[in-house]
Amino acid sequence: MDKSDLVQKAKLAEQAERYDDMAASMKSVTEGGVELSNEERNLLSVAYKNVVGARRSIEQKTEGNEKKQQMAREYREKIEAELQDICNDVL
């Protein structure tokens, strides 16, 4: 798939709110080794911002009893590992 197809796929994924797919497409664009345009940088930023944001939202939803908090902590650790992989991926 060429660069313009990948960018178009990322735009479609954004419209469908499929940010993991959007991030994957933009990652493929960056692997081409060519400097990104402003639009491409914006798409990359939006993709990873939303991928990370969706995983961070667990922090705000865990007010309650100790059992819920423990479950949330364990799940957060799993998400933190995913975030680490995502961040390393984009770098």
User: What is the terminal-to-terminal distance?
Assistant: 22 Å
CATH class: Mainly Alpha
Which runs of at least 5 residues are low in confidence (pLDDT < 50)? none
| CATH 2nd-level architecture | Up-down Bundle
Number of strands: 0
- The number of distinct helices, counting runs of at least 4 residues, comes to 4
Radius of gyration: 16 Å
Helix content: over 70%
Shape: elongated
Q: State which percent range the strand residues make up.
A: under 5%
Round the mean pLDDT to the nearest integer and report it. Answer: 87
The helix/strand class is mainly alpha
Task: Give the tally of structural domains.
Answer: 1
CATH topology: Delta-Endotoxin, domain 1
Largest sheet: none
Question: What is the secondary structure topology, with strand pairs?
Answer:
Layout: H1 3-15, H2 19-30, H3 38-56, H4 66-90
Helix pairs in contact: 1-2, 1-3, 2-3, 3-4
